[in-house]
Amino acid sequence: MGKHKIKMMMREVVSRSLWHTGLWRLVDRLTPRRFTILAGHCVVDPAVNADLPSDMKITGERLEMLLRVLGRRFRFVTVGEGWRSMRAEDDERSLVALSMDDGYRDNHTALLPLLERTGARATVFLESRPLTHRRVNWSHKYFWMLQAGGLQPTDLATRLGDRMGGDLGERCQAAVAQPEGAAYRLKRILKYDVDALARDAAIHAEFLEAGGSESDLCNRIYVDLEEAQTMRDAGIELGGHTVRHEVLSTLSPTEQVREVADGRSATVELLGDEVGVSFAYPFGRRWDFDEHTVAAVRAAGFESAVTTHAGTNLRGADPMRLARWMLDETTPIHHLVAEACGGFWLFRKLGLELAE
Ligand SMILES: [Zn+2]
Questions:
Q1: What Cα–Cα distance (Å) separates residue 57 from each residue in 27, 44, 146, 237, 305?
Q2: Which of 119, 156, 233, 305: CA 20 to 30 A from 350?
């Protein structure tokens, strides 16, 4: 049996025993104060997010159940409040925040009523360009072509490869040779391995040819200014998530500063200073940002920044690299509880990472 398999088995044994025996409440009392941040994108609302992949969605019922369980034990905060409270040591209790990335319209139609029902708090990280110019990033045109546009990954690979030229045609074809996972592999090439401008131009041309309308798509999936204001006024924290949602580590330091700082100033201008406290790195994996990004985030004036690496955050955590738990419909409650109560942290201290 491989090492990874053993670790996954241990994760199940540890988290299920903590959860099912109720031992997690004791562990919560015995371990240091924690700030656990949940992360997702969309609450299922077919009118908004039918085109988006399932790992970006969670149903309202499921999310509500998770929040109710955690809310009985921990104090709900926004990301900005949570980090300030950890720094100030102003409470004994451990904290939980819910965060949603990008600024999808279901955060207004479905998340907002759910927060009102449960008393939970949330932070929504907004890309600024959909808000200011009603433009969407390339990935949404890509998803749209495969769903509403009815294109097959193989067709799309041929068309995009032809437009982008060089050896990209062959690489795109190789990515879609096996039907299983083809759309995901093609997207990965488009995300990391191609020139962003050439990719955006190629995707936009194909999107128009397939009958897409960027403003219609943006109006359907992203919140507009009025919706963002309503969310803010209802107590949702809004945070920064750059202008165009690029992989920041693939940009020059100057372009990174522009993406981070311009995104912040555009949203602060529209929605107020409280929008400039918390930041989420687009995609959020270690290789998606670098030390130039961290410097740019700090220089722009953000107090904290979140990644998409699993974990919980203790008082000594790096505020520019806060860990989060990614949520989708398949996220088990016992994993969340094992992290939020400090159970996984105990194993981490022993040198065993059970979270990922
Ligand atoms: Zn994002």
A1: 30, 6, 17, 20, 22
A2: 305
Ligand 1 mean position to 102 CA, how many Å?
5
C-alpha 136/C-alpha 219 separation (Å) is 10
Distance separating alpha carbons of residues 40 and 63, to the nearest angstrom: 10
**Is the pTM here over 0.85, yes or no?**
yes
User: Per the structure block, which two tokens stand in for 77?
Assistant: 């905060």
What residue ranges of the chain have pLDDT lower than 50?
none
- Who contacts 351 (Cβ-Cβ below 8 Å, separation ≥6)? none
pLDDT of residue 167: 82
In contact, 307 and 282? CB cutoff 8 Å: no
CA 283 / ligand 1 centre spacing (Å): 6
Provide the pLDDT for residue 168: 82
Q: How far is the CA of 152 from the centre of ligand 1 (A)?
A: 25
C-alpha of residue 101 to centroid of ligand 1, in Å: 5
Distance of CA 347 from the midpoint of ligand 1 (Å): 30
